[in-house]
Amino acid sequence: MAAAEPARPRRASSHAAGDGEGQDRERPRRTAPRRRSGKTGAAAAMRAAAQQLAELLGRLPDSVSSLKPTEDGWEAQVEVVELERIPDTTSVMASYRVALDEDGELISYERTRRYTRGMIDRPT
After folding, report:
1. Is the dihedral of CA 88, 89, 94, 99 positive or negative?
2. Model confidence over 28-52: pLDDT tens digits?
3. CB of 80 within 8 A of CB of 96?
4. Long-range contacts of 59-63 (CB under 8 A, 24+ apart)
5. Percentage of the residues of the chain whose pLDDT score is greater than 90
6. Which of 12, 46, 63, 116 has the fewest CB atoms within 10 Å, measured from its CB?
7. Do residues 98 and 75 lie in contact, with contact meaning Cβ atoms separated by under 8 Å?
8. 73-86: per-residue pLDDT in tens?
9. Is the pLDDT of residue 17 over 50?
10. For residue 61, with 0-12 CB atoms within 10 Å meaning exposed, 13-18 middle and 19 or more buried, which class applies?
11. Ramachandran assignment for 104, one of left (phi > 0), alpha (psi -120 to 50 degrees), beta (any other)
12. Which of 109, 110, 98 is nearest to 47 (CA)?
């Protein structure tokens, strides 16, 4: 039995509907969704906070636990694994407050808390 040949991309026929002009043009790509006011949207701000903090700390964020708009842009709480341990519930986590300007650029960060992953918040 012969091996199946890989699928080959088909070329557009010159007999296709329309004159073909403009069909191969690439759409312009937006780097980050923006609000109509020119500010970065919540989803883009969340990604920006995690990515930029990762660059500064050299560790990948585990999650973004909160995000809120401010007068100057956005403020996020980003959770980061600072020390991996076995079992996973004993890993040391840190919560960072990250401030972003209205364009989604990180302007400050601060570690606000360290805790073990298995620790449950208790009401105060």
Report:
1. positive
2. 443 444 444 556 899 999 999 999 9
3. yes
4. 62/93
5. 62
6. 12
7. yes
8. 999 999 999 999 99
9. no
10. buried
11. left
12. 98
How much is the pLDDT for 120? 83
Q: Which residues pair with 18 in a beta bridge?
A: none
Q: What is the CATH number that goes with domain 42-116?
A: 3.10.450
CB 118 within 8 A of CB 104: no
User: Which residue is it, tokens 């969704």?
Assistant: 33
Concatenate the DSSP letters of all residues of the chain into one string: -PPPPPP-PPPPPTTSSS--TTSSPPPPPPSS-B-TTSPBPHHHHHHHHHHHHHHHHSS-EEEEEEEEE-SSEEEEEEEEEEE--SSGGG-EEEEEEEEEETTS-EEEEEEEEEEETT------
